[in-house]
Design goal:
transmembrane; amino-acid transport; cell inner membrane; 4 strands; L-isoleucine transmembrane transporter activity; mainly alpha; about 300 residues; two-stranded antiparallel ribbon; two-stranded antiparallel sheet
């Protein structure tokens, strides 16, 4: 039981990271109806920017962790938002009204370009960051279960829940959220009602990039290592999480991320670490056989 609970904590931590990245996928798909396959590379860039920012703050003598964390988060969000905005303007907007395969090819090309771009700038070797937040808690010690929840794991899970709640409130309770939902339903009618459709789509990409930056920062602090290829597999699993939870659903993205994290950790802990990635896609296939729209997704309805 103790091992199972420890693996559950590890799985929820990993799933929270997948969920944050999946939020970017699900928001862009919900508004524009296309998959941003370069989103994993935006997350990778956020991780690298976090690493560089921590090094710069250390050089300037800013070592108080809460202040450093907030400053690095702001720096990472600012840079990744600029990347997200530029990506939408250059790779997606010119092809928005083209045939459906064109934006997909453009997204794959943007993903390869960003990988190569970071590899040239930072090199192919892994970059490391010393552990910044150490220590933890054993909340079930009184029950004879030494299950450790590290401070970093607690930060990741709590921050994911707060960001999910913030995005949910933004989409459902704000003027911008109403504009997003109007654009999702009918871009032409939204434009005729005075909504700046291009602005709404650009800001949705920016918001997704900001969430990816937060995930990149948390991963950098948690694992302490970054390389130019981390965005590929993490992005693929996050996309799987978005589909599993129901792409277009904000709670579904987090739920799918949590399930993917738990499946991966349980499979690696109880079956085999070699095929843990395969288990994720097997679970996706099984869910979609019985729930084609995902766990919390709703079928698309088209007015005629």
């Amino acid at each position: 039981m103790e091992y199972f609970l420890q693996q559950t904590v590890n799985g929820l931590t990993l799933g929270s990271i997948y969920g944050l990245i999946a939020l970017g996928y699900t928001m862009v798909y919900g508004i524009v109806g296309m998959i941003n396959f370069a989103h994993g590379e935006i997350y990778m860039i956020g991780a690298f920017i976090s690493l560089v920012a921590f090094a710069a703050l250390g050089f300037l003598g800013i070592t108080w962790l809460p202040a450093a964390f907030v400053l690095v988060l702001l720096i990472a969000v600012a840079f990744t938002c600029a990347y997200g905005w530029t990506l939408e303007r250059l790779a997606y907007r010119p092809l928005r009204n083209s045939y459906r395969l064109a934006p997909l090819i453009s997204a794959i090309g943007a993903s390869i370009f960003l990988q190569s771009y970071v590899q040239i700038l930072q090199g192919a070797r892994t970059r490391s960051l010393p552990s910044l937040l150490e220590g933890g808690f054993t909340p079930l010690h009184g029950l004879g279960l030494d299950v450790t929840v590290s401070k970093m794991q607690l930060l990741i899970i709590c921050m994911t829940m707060l960001l999910m709640a913030g995005v949910f409130m933004l989409v459902n309770r704000t003027r911008f959220g109403r504009a997003q939902r109007a654009v999702q339903q009918d871009k032409m009618m939204a434009s005729r009602l005075g909504i700046r459709v291009d602005h709404v789509i650009s800001m949705t990409f920016v918001l997704g990039a900001a969430l990816a930056a937060a995930a990149g920062l948390l991963v950098t602090m948690y694992y302490g290592s970054v390389d130019f290829f981390i965005g590929f597999l993490a992005g693929l699993k996050a996309f799987t999480a978005a589909v599993l939870g129901g792409i277009g659903s904000v709670p579904g993205a987090i739920l799918g991320g949590m399930l993917i994290g738990l499946i991966e950790v349980y499979w690696g802990g109880y079956v085999s670490g070699t095929y843990k990635d395969v288990s994720v896609f097997m679970a996706l296939i099984l869910v979609l056989l019985f729930l084609p729209t995902g766990l919390l997704g709703r079928p698309d309805s088209e007015k005629v």
